[in-house]
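Table 4 source record.
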Amino acid sequence: MRLQAVKGTADRLPADQPRWRRLHEVARRVLERAGVQELTPPVFEFAEVFERSVGEAADLVVQKEMYTFDDRGGRRLTLRPEFTASVLRAYVEHGMHTWPSPVKLWSHGPAFRAENVQRGRFRQFHQVNLEVVGSAEPVADAEAIALFVDILRELGLTGVRVALGSVGDPDDRARYNAYLRDALAPRAGELTETSQERLRLNPMRLLDAKDPGDRALIAGLARPLDRLGDPARAHFDAVAGYLRAWEVPFDVDPAIVRGLDYYRRTAFEIHAEGIGAQSALGGGGRYDGLVAQLGGPDVPGIGWAFGVERVLDALAQADLAAPEAEGPALYLVPMDDEAVGEVAHLARRLRARQRVEHGYVKRAPGKGLRDADRAGARYAGLIGARERAEGTVQLKHLATGVQRSVPLADLADALERPESIAEPATQEV
């Protein structure tokens, strides 16, 4: 059997790293400017963490997608399918409710779901995640949404729009679920098996149905946003007002839902226009009951996550130039056997200030320069018997061909001052 990556996973090759690194750097910069602190939770948790957060009324497909297993001690563990439950477990465990409120936390890393693999969907995927815990105010919702948009804009994406909805308060949800049950009861047998189960456990989840027949049955029914109570309506209007004031583009989407019982009020998705059907980059919502469900105090919260692979795909489709991997400042070429150890020693000394690579066997000057060029170096430094005797290195700027002899003691400074070798080239080695 030819060994290869497991279906639904992918190797992140060296050429991919600059795009991923830039995305994380932009997210870090935008979020930390807003006082968001980084938290790194474990990749796996006790299964109960996710089972409590998902609950009985969760989509059965989501439950089946979780990677749950018994360890050697017989403990049931789950690879995280998302970040929110892990972050809030850490919030409870470390007593963060005593911190200044709201507590704003961001995380990034892999998550795992055993789902059907397709474009934008993987079994190991990666997310950037934000949680804001401790504020029930509409301004917290609006700020969280705006930060999401700020990250995408700073990455260069245009045509970013928010689809904004609301699932209301618990009483609104209960009334809406009763309405759906009554409206669909006469035709429940026409629903798919999955939708029949949703109708029994959590009717609101029917609005996420993908089957054309199911969608036709619910097409004419009212949406949660149409049946909000006065407090939830006032909250929604306030969030929308902040977004307008901050020039964050959004569309009201009455069909957006969050199926779990702890979700309330604000629900949203973020889309990038002009990149095809897979335009949704992420989303989130308010989850005022979840911290208490995980054993902590009854504090409100709102959060979101976006898929890193989805955002990188959107950037590629928008034809935004990906940053290239940066090569070394200097590639040292040993031109005789004695120079092999010398360039290795010199590289170690120079690395306190620069990225430096070197050859591991002696090379003729022409081949050594080709090695330096393939490494993407800005300069090549050649050392042989003459240079050893003089205490110098032949330093060549590979883009211009300018070359001069530089004393070893001055080499670190010369690398940081390109003008120092901008004189006409001396004779080639």
